[in-house]
């Protein structure tokens, strides 16, 4: 493509709209224009995509493959334009046509093939891997329906299907020529072949076709385009007649229809196991096929390929690679095992017991019989190899198959060379508590990689006013290298810059206030403190603690209407897993409290509550730039890292936090005086676990403020929450408050008072906000993936090769 100007961009769009839709540019609908622009953008980066791939092949670059059952990229138009260096040009061109780029970008449906943290991290990594010029690709599932759409009906969460593909997906390329077959079920037994080798023979298998859809992952102004490959199921023509019933067929043909909507909660469903093996087998087969093109011995596989297991859902990568090497390529078990361990690496994303994935032996035998046989052999050899080296009880606690369960984390650790946590505290807890037994056995395999965020999306794309202030004060280098945000520290006492930052925040608050008005009918003032908690609804994240503090404030205001607090808008965004009744009870209760307070004239708008429905990446992009306060209040030790904490900090919000996950590193980055820390520490939480001396009822009995708040869930104060209020009350009192809300309540209220006092001192607040922005650079996922590349995957950037040939994008 030639150099793009406004004129030839217009001409291109005009031609393409005519060709595709038989209309003139001026008459094109928003959908038509969006698809035309999207396909043009894709055409622009296609050359680079092909070149990138050819370079990897030519240079025989080692490549990493990030296997993740979730990817959550959100919308891609503006991000692609930014990365191609075309954002301003396209904005101007469209504006000549009386089209607003932001409105047009809104036409795109969010690609929401993930639940929350784990999926969003995978997408931040895809952006950063490409932007750092690293040869790394994604591998996952192309769900027909992404995460459900959330609506509130009478305050209850209602789930609707996310039909994101209804209008097609402009970014993907279907590649049937790269399809592979995946084999399930059947009877598998070992038989000696003519060479005297034992080989599996399978009968009555189910064979499915895995068809890849590739999406270009465009690097930031570096000419690199990597691939995110998502697999979709089809029934091969040869298998059509083999299904015993429509129900049986449906299980398989709907295999990639829906994403399981549980976050950090494993439910052991059959279809989920099939999904896991489906994308794992397809992905590993296609990687091996690529490697075979290089004509190298198998011993070189780990020099050319790194496979990353994003939490345990893709753990079958380990036995699948073993299967391909042993069954299909006659590699010996010993050599195959050596190769597999070198190729694989694993990230753990949670310490919650309910999230640790286990599969019943009977289900594995039924669904993936060959995988089970290989896992059994891995397990047998593991036990054998450890005998005499480690005590028997340690071996039994760490083996893969225990009783009638297959432990996927154990498989992931034993079958890989690296296990990492996602924040320092989390990685330490893995070593000292959760995976301590494995740390004793494999101390060298454990490491930490603190999460990061794709800073370009969360600053340049989401927050233009802030970006402009940064450009004017510290220049533009921060756009490429976020560590340069540090330069902002030189302006801590610069009234002009502080004022401009405050104006930028105000502008985003006005925009959000308008959106809140339009979507919920609630009027909020941009002069109020915007206090934000946005994340999945989960008991351990303690949205309920936030609500309890709001109720306390409400009662304080009822008792003393003149109470001098700065007006505050409490903003929530959260989806609950459809089967998680307790989380849904909290949503209903927040909505009812919101109704009660927002409509109580005596409160004089001093507090407002807004629960925005359908929290997703796009909504996050509206909320985060407008936030003054970031609520990161999980019970210490429970949140592996958190990433909204980093996004909010980057946008100048002040954090109220427990010392949990990456909050600890945020505290270290900004200093105690620029963050509001409260609550039990992880050590104190563990001390309670050990001495069993926590009695929530005692706190309730002794603390009248807490009693009033807790009673309000059941005494009729809050309307319409009979059942929900009872469930919440019982969790706090009858079941002894598993997440120590009552224990942390007073300290949390004190932290909130500090926020109020500090906000009233605007000079101080603005400075704290600046310090947060200035120190957010260290949480860039560019840095995180560089560390993965160096320490775990041993892959190198390809800039060296492309620079020679020029990196122009257009
Ligand atoms: C989801 C399913 C199973 C296990 C973990 C998850 C998950 O989303 N974990 C989250 O991962 C994020 C990215 O590492 C972390 O920031 C969150 O703290 C963690 O809960």
From TrEMBL:
<dbReference type="GO" id="GO:0005980">
    <property type="term" value="P:glycogen catabolic process"/>
</dbReference>
<dbReference type="InterPro" id="IPR011833">
    <property type="entry name" value="Glycg_phsphrylas"/>
</dbReference>
<keyword id="KW-0021">Allosteric enzyme</keyword>
<keyword id="KW-0808">Transferase</keyword>
<keyword id="KW-0175">Coiled coil</keyword>
<feature type="coiled-coil region">
    <location>
        <begin position="491"/>
        <end position="518"/>
    </location>
</feature>
<dbReference type="GO" id="GO:0030170">
    <property type="term" value="F:pyridoxal phosphate binding"/>
</dbReference>
<dbReference type="InterPro" id="IPR000811">
    <property type="entry name" value="Glyco_trans_35"/>
</dbReference>
<feature type="modified residue" description="N6-(pyridoxal phosphate)lysine">
    <location>
        <position position="647"/>
    </location>
</feature>
<dbReference type="GO" id="GO:0005737">
    <property type="term" value="C:cytoplasm"/>
</dbReference>
<dbReference type="InterPro" id="IPR035090">
    <property type="entry name" value="Pyridoxal_P_attach_site"/>
</dbReference>
<keyword id="KW-0328">Glycosyltransferase</keyword>
<dbReference type="GO" id="GO:0008184">
    <property type="term" value="F:glycogen phosphorylase activity"/>
</dbReference>
<comment type="function">
    <text>Phosphorylase is an important allosteric enzyme in carbohydrate metabolism. Enzymes from different sources differ in their regulatory mechanisms and in their natural substrates. However, all known phosphorylases share catalytic and structural properties.</text>
</comment>
<dbReference type="Pfam" id="PF00343">
    <property type="entry name" value="Phosphorylase"/>
</dbReference>
<keyword id="KW-0663">Pyridoxal phosphate</keyword>
<protein>
    <recommendedName>
        <fullName>Alpha-1,4 glucan phosphorylase</fullName>
        <ecNumber>2.4.1.1</ecNumber>
    </recommendedName>
</protein>
<comment type="function">
    <text>Allosteric enzyme that catalyzes the rate-limiting step in glycogen catabolism, the phosphorolytic cleavage of glycogen to produce glucose-1-phosphate, and plays a central role in maintaining cellular and organismal glucose homeostasis.</text>
</comment>
<keyword id="KW-0119">Carbohydrate metabolism</keyword>
<comment type="similarity">
    <text>Belongs to the glycogen phosphorylase family.</text>
</comment>
